[in-house]
Every structure is written in C-alpha cells, then in structure tokens.
C-alpha cells in the first residue's frame, strides 16, 4: 500500500485544531476551528475522492480518539461506511484498548511496523491529521504522497506540520486546484532528499 499523509493547514503552516475550538487545546491553543469557515462543496468532493482510495487508515492517538468518538455516531454521513468499516491502525505507546473496530494498536518501533503494513496488498494507507506521526514517518522516508489542503487564513500560533529542525524532503507536485472558498489543494509525491543548486548567470 502507498502511505498517504492528508493534512489541513493554515497559510502559516499550522495544522493544530482545524475542526473545532475544542478539538486540540494542548499547549494553550485557542484558535481551533480555523479551517471550517472555508469548507465548500468543491472541497467535499475532493475529500470524498481521496477517501475512496483508502483501504486502511493510520492515526496518532489524539486524532484516533477524536475520530473514534465521532464517526460511529455519523452513520448517515456519506463517508461513514468507509471510515467505520475499514481496517484502522493507531500508533500509541500508552493506549491499552481501542473500541472503534476494526482497530489494531501499534506500539514499540512504529516506523518498522508501518513499513510492514506498506508491504501488504492494497491501494492506500491514509493518515488523516496526526501531524506528529506524519512528521516522524516523513523523516523515516515512509510517506509516499502528501495531500495538503491550505486554508486562506493566518492562525498566528499553534503546532505546525513542518517545524523548524524538521527533516529535509524533496517533493514533486502532482496536482493542484483551488476551491471557490479559497482552499488551495496541493498533492505532492515524495522524492527523497531535496536537490540543491546555485542561482546565477554562470551557474
């Protein structure tokens, strides 16, 4: 399976708490819900297309607990069948049980276990949110594709998907589009380490 990271970002790179004010208030974050005002039907179609490619899902603990709390109740939502019925994996060193079936808890050497999952047959193993997990797997060279939905808002504070000191990575743009509400969708393929050069007339 291909490992795909899907993230909602602000223009200044914040990935924390896009869905509601109380989604993730860790470290005193008070700007949650910044992505919601920009949702529109065009982005809903993009998100549904992406979701339809998934054969399994991988979450960090915090995102898993939010999804596990909400999605089993949303049986009328068009995406509920895929999310509720597909295999799910949650990376956690502290979680003892996972009630959102079918779920498998991954602990210990997470990158090694994810690499083993990627060797299984299937289309996509998708990470939704779970920025810390995404950062670690990008650093390990395991992310095949990044799908970034960038809202036209500057949040000003909060946890960023690409923090200072992160692992350099080269990317190739596969697709981009902008929805009527201004969400910029960028899809990238991972290309290993970046290339470097020197700008100038004689370079």
Tell me about this structure:
By secondary structure, the chain is of the alpha/beta class. The protein is 22% helix and 24% strand. It has an 8-stranded mixed β-sheet with strand order 4-3-2-5-1-6-8-7. It is globular, with a radius of gyration of 17 Å. It starts with a strand and ends in a 13-residue tail after the last strand. The relative contact order is 0.24. The mean pLDDT is 95.
Which features does this protein show?
203 residues, 5 helices, 24% strand
Short description:
The chain has helices at residues 41-51, 61-70, 80-85, 110-118, 131-139, and strands at residues 2-9, 54-60, 88-91, 103-106, 124-128, 145-150, 171-178, 184-190. The protein is an alpha/beta fold and 203 residues long.
